[in-house]
# Entry
Amino acid sequence: MEWERLPSAEMVFLSRLPLSSLCIADRLPLMLLLVAAVAIGASSLPAKELFAKELPSQASPAKIEIVSFTRDNQVIRATGRVIVEDEQGGVLLEEASGRQWVIEATEVESRRATDRSFKPLTADELAEQMLEELPAGFQIHTTSHYVVCFNTSRAYAQWTSSLLERLHRAFTNYWSGKGLELTEPEFPLVVVIYATANQYRTASADELGSAAGSIIGYYSLTSNRVSMFDLTGTEALRSGRSRRGSLKEINRMLTQPAAQPLVATVVHEATHQIAFNCGLQTRLADLPLWLVEGMAVYFEAPDLSSGRGWRGIGKVNYPRLQTFQANLHTPRRSSLLSLVADDKRFRNPRTAVDAYADAWALNYFLLRYHPKEYAEYVQMLSRKGPLTTGTPKERIAEFRTHFGDPARLQKEFLKRMSRID
# Structure
């Protein structure tokens, strides 16, 4: 399996339709899949009221509840805190591991409150839970923010965790420097690394369906985990040597030009995981994909030759720029409002590649020429709660409040981005 055939996945907020029916064709490059079941109650409640009853924050920890529910003819017992609930009894429940369950009222078999206070698992506790869940042969490598579960070489787990810690530091420093209010992750960040692509495909089949063979890594909104496989096992990078080499050998392989798209995909997925765990974005909230995806692309090109940290944040993403500029004077040029109002262009296989290029371009443009307004817009979005849905009209109004007249902004956007080279 050569890396040229391995796009990352498209960002798709999934309903309970089969995953295979929602995944984008394999030809789409460098995209992200965030797996999330968000269709709870949609047939019986207006979207705006779906989970409008967000539980008030309290000084004391939330109490643990035990919810038993039936799904796919199986009874599941989940223990955690209820984040939001609807008037019919549906709940969004979060376990101590960070996993979230979206449970419809019609699925609930029983619900019992306890006197125990909710407390996130420690890294050691979460590591123990992951070893019980994963197949035999997995080991654990922990760092300040990550619990890395792996059945490949420890050297590769160490290389990956070092990359991710550098990304975490760079990401949080970057946004804190722009005045955004960030927090430390409440839960240890779980990353699962499979030794081979085949193992990864098998393990990911339930979430990714038939797309598992074409997606080299993904972040799941519900489990809060990043899953991937050992990139040094890719045929294009073998170079006749074992992938279970030293840190020096791994770094040599993954700094090759052929490896850059693979590493960028891992960074893209990990960027989403950080953003959804540092207070910048809320899982299952109504966040526009142009912002969520464009922000991840903005960070996805590390300079692995730099041992001191992360370099190149916000540099021009030339593949995206080429796509964007190629569409400037064609019928494929869509308006700024079509990108801002809803996520339809990202969900359509015929327009998704162009939408991602536009998303990168808009984030790049706003961060470069309107950074204060951009930071305030992102801070506003960070306050949105989970499982509420805005209308296109509301999205446009929010955008207009922070950036002014979209028609005027579009003229500036197209003019400036047409001159980038």
About this structure: The first strand starts at residue 34 and ends at 35. DSSP finds 14 helices and twelve strands in the chain. Residues 318-418 form one domain. Residues 1-58 have pLDDT under 50 and may be disordered.
